[in-house]
Amino acid sequence: MLTTRALRERRKRRNRIALRKRGGDRPRLSVFRSSKQIYAQVIDDEAGRTLAAASSLDKSLRESLKTGADKAAASAVGKLLAERAKAAGVDQVVFDRGPYPYHGRVQALADAAREGGLDF
Question: Residue 22: its pLDDT value, please?
Answer without folding.
Answer: 84
